[in-house]
Write a structure and sequence with these properties.
It is built from ten helices and eleven strands. By secondary structure, the chain is an alpha/beta fold. It has a seven-stranded mixed β-sheet, sandwiched between helices. It has a two-stranded antiparallel ribbon with strand order 4-5. It has a two-stranded antiparallel sheet with strand order 8-9.
């Protein structure tokens, strides 16, 4: 409690609390435009932000820690828990999450029978968003398009099975408009044919199938925090996985291709930063500055993550409201 702190610390703690309280007051005082039937434009989707979201954003900005930090770590832990997976890795968008999910399959550390090589095939939906397909092409693989079931808008499992060939290495499909595809059947097909299954859950955070949350059936799952989706950080996304190898590779490709897994601002987490023998490099070459893959810089800022921490607390009510709206329209 602030009154139990030394005087200098108490002043700092009270000042931050006062700032955040003022943010909430300011937000409450902003005039909300009146709704006029027949005139007010109603978007099909959009961000829903409140005073707590603003307070979290300002709280992170007061730290002046502009890259991933304490809020990013908290948000990743909460995401993993909500999806029911071991690890979640934040990134700059759902599109970037899809690129990372496909890119990790190209790593030489992936077993040869599962590694995605140029010319290999990835089965995907013929009707969907381009950034589910683009990462396949960007990694020099071949997208194999499968048609949908008209009544559901989702990919047809029978056509997926018919499309599997000797060059097929993965299946990457989105849950169309948040409605789960027949993920149990596709997971069984992937397991039967030793394929990687990537679930694009960008529209489907909170959806369930067979009593489990989407994102828990495949090897990798992605989610987007664009304003049109269930929760938002403005721009942002994440990749989820249960696999240790996949987890390390996601961070590697996201963080410049760096082999080191230290958090930003940290070093020597492994305890032997200068004691590695890495390939043909001299023994003791600095592990923190060793790059084992051609990666990107796709980290989320802590200010975005702070909004995510606030938003995820409202996920259940957002999902419930979406279902109410769907039932009303139906």
């Amino acid at each position: 409690m602030p009154d139990q702190l030394p005087s200098a610390d108490r002043k700092t703690a009270v000042s931050r609390d006062e700032i955040l309280d003022l943010c909430r007051t300011w937000h409450a005082q902003q005039a909300k435009p009146a709704f006029v039937p027949g005139e007010t434009y109603i978007p099909p989707s959009g961000k829903v932000l409140d005073a707590d979201d603003l307070a979290h954003l300002v709280d992170a900005s007061l730290d002046m820690w502009l890259t991933a930090g304490r809020f990013a770590r908290e948000f990743e832990a909460q995401l993993a828990q909500r999806f029911g997976v071991k690890r979640a890795h934040l990134t700059v968008s759902g599109s970037a999450a899809n690129l990372l999910a496909v890119s990790v399959l190209t790593s030489p550390t992936i077993p040869e029978d599962r590694r995605l090589m140029p010319g290999d095939e990835v089965i995907t939906a013929g009707c969907g968003f381009p950034t589910t397909v683009a990462p396949i092409v960007q990694n020099r693989a071949v997208p194999v398009f499968v048609d949908m079931i008209l009544e559901t808008g989702n990919i047809d499992p029978a056509q997926v099975e018919a499309a599997i060939g000797p060059k097929t290495k993965a299946i990457m499909v989105a849950h169309t408009l948040g409605n789960p595809f027949e993920v149990g059947k596709l997971a069984a097909l992937a397991n039967k044919h030793n394929l990687t299954l990537i679930e694009d859950c960008c529209d489907a955070f909170g959806a369930t199938a067979h009593g489990k949350g989407v994102g828990t059936f495949g090897d990798l799952a992605t989610v987007s925090f664009y304003p049109a989706h269930h929760i938002t950080t403005g721009e942002g996304g994440a990749v989820m996985t249960n696999g240790i190898r996949h987890s390390r590779l996601i961070e590697c490709f996201r963080d410049w291709g760096r082999d080191c897994y230290c958090d930003p601002g940290k070093d020597n987490t492994c305890g032997k930063r200068f004691d590695w023998q890495l390939g043909e490099l001299p023994f003791g070459y600095d592990h923190k500055y060793t790059y084992s893959h051609l990666g990107y810089n796709m980290k989320m800022s802590d200010m975005q993550a702070a909004i995510g921490v606030s938003q995820i607390r409202k996920l259940d009510q957002f999902v419930a409201r979406r279902r109410e709206n769907f039932a009303e329209l139906k």
